[in-house]
Structures are given as structure tokens and as C-alpha cells.
Amino acid sequence: MIDGTTNIIGVIGDPIEHSFSPIINNAAFEYLNLNYVYLPFHVLSENLGSAIGGANKLNIKGLNVTIPHKKNVLVTLNHLDPIAKEIGAVNTIKFENNEAIGYNTDGIGCLHALENKTSVTNKDILVVGAGGASRAICYQLAHSGINSLTVINRDLAKAEELTSNIKNTGILSDLNYDNMDNLILQAQQTDILINTTPLGMKGYPDQNPILHADEIPEDIIVNDIVYNPIETNLIKEAKEAGAKTVNGVKMLIYQAAEAIKIWTGKEAPKDIMENKLREILT
Ligand code: ATR
User: Fold this and answer.
1) Residue 17: what are its φ and ψ, rounded to 5°?
2) What is the atom index within ligand 1 of the atom nearest the CA of 70?
3) pLDDT at position 282, please?
4) What is the pTM of this model?
5) Kind of pairing, strands 92-96 and 99-103?
6) Contact, 221 vs 193, CB < 8 A?
7) Which of 14, 25, 73, 220 has the most crowded Cβ, counting Cβ within 10 A?
């Protein structure tokens, strides 16, 4: 029940009405019996600074940040968690002592989703795509004891920039980039393949999987971060090939669970959150 002591958390974005975050976060708060409520806030880019300042003054406890504000929100914050600073994007804000602290839980969400199936230690990892989600995942993996990281992207310059930026930090030395034409070859030489492109996402014009079953080695793990539909064409092809799979729902749940830990200090009920999400996804 909402009362005078209810803590408010929210998500800001533009658009915001399709966000699943209110559903999974409120399910978690309810299960944990926490007096918190999670609300969607439609915030236009030109109002971002005043929205963050206003949220702080309204004693809102925290926010998730989504498209298109993840990068631009940085300048409105008082402090940044080191990995959010490296990634250059924030998806979670905690308001504390009248200050706004920025975090990025996307990469750790992906890492924990993978760790459900396998350890990433000493693994060769292939990431397809070099956009915002890829950046968060690549920095996190580079910190996590992997052997090598290869980024493949349609726009080769973006893959080169991302890998050279990570190399410059000195956290991982075996970093490579390649173009989409070499995807089949690169997939033969990896342990874990992660798709961060929107191919196969509901509503995206191109539903083709980036690889077909006969191009996927059976001894690799295929992680598609697309979560709607839960079983993308890439996940279907990987299963047909006999490979292990990690669907995008896992990353979505684990990144949300990390944010809940930042705001409340509590371990989130990931199974409850996932079941709630599965009720509304296909
Ligand atoms: P997100 O925040 O979800 O990562 P993004 O920053 O727009 O979204 O990044 C999308 C990634 O998917 C990019 O790497 C993009 O490739 P380009 O850098 O070449 O644009 C990739 N992508 C999008 N559509 C694609 C397609 N049809 N084929 C291959 N890659 C695609």
C-alpha cells in the first residue's frame, strides 16, 4: 500500500511507455515487502537536467535511465561509479545526501547472465555490434578475467574505436576487431558469442539471425541480448546447432537486480521478476 513513507524509484526515457522496468521492479519490491514504488517518467532531452535536479529535490530515491539519455545524463550527476565512467553511460542513479551518483549495471547484468551457464575466466569472447550496449558489455568483460575480446561491427571504425579505447585502459591486452564478413570464421574461434545488434528484435525490419545453425559450433555459448521475443531466430539456430544459449531476458533481469541492490541493499528475487516478464513476453 502506498503511504506517507513510500520510497519512489523511477525510469526516465523518451519514449517510455513500452518499458518493462516498472513491471519487473514493482514485482521485486512487492515480493521483498519493501515500501517502494517504481514509476515511468517521460522526460524529453531538453528537460533532462531539470528532471534530475527535480527528482533529487522530490526525495526520489533512484532512477533508471534509458534511451536516449544514458550518455547525456552524465553531466547532470555529482559522482560516477568507476565502470560507468569508463563506459561513458549511466543506466542507474542513486540519490543520496542530496547528491546524484551514476552507475551502469548493463555490463554486469550481461556478465551475471553468462555466469549462469559458464565461467568467463580465460574465455575468448566475440561481441557483435559496437553500440551503447556493446560498450557496457565489453568494458565489463574486459575487467572479468577473459582471455580475449573481439568486436565485429558493420561499421568497422566503431569496432576499432571501441577496442582501442579498452586497450588504452590497460585492463585487457588481447583485443581485436573485424567486419561482419568474417563473422562465420570468427565464430569458429570463439568460446562465447554475444549479439548486441537489434537483428531479430520484435518490430525490427531485419529478422534474419546473424548466423545459421550450420555456422555455429556446438561447443560455444550463444548469448542474444535481444529479449523480445525471448527466443530470437539466433537463439533458435544456436539450439539447432547444439550450442548452449543465454537469452536476453537474463541480462534484463540481472541488470535490474543490480540496480535494486544499489538502491535498497537487498538481493532481488530474479526468478519472480523473470516469471512476471515471461507472462507478458512471447
Ligand atoms: P544499443 O544501445 O542497443 O547498443 P546502438 O548504440 O544503436 O544500440 O547500437 C546498435 C548496434 O547494432 C550498432 O553496432 C549497429 O551497427 P553500426 O555501428 O554499423 O550502425 C548494429 N546494427 C544495427 N542494425 C544492424 C544491422 N541491420 N546489421 C548489422 N548491425 C546492425
Assistant:
1) -65, -20
2) 2
3) 66
4) 0.96
5) antiparallel
6) yes
7) 25
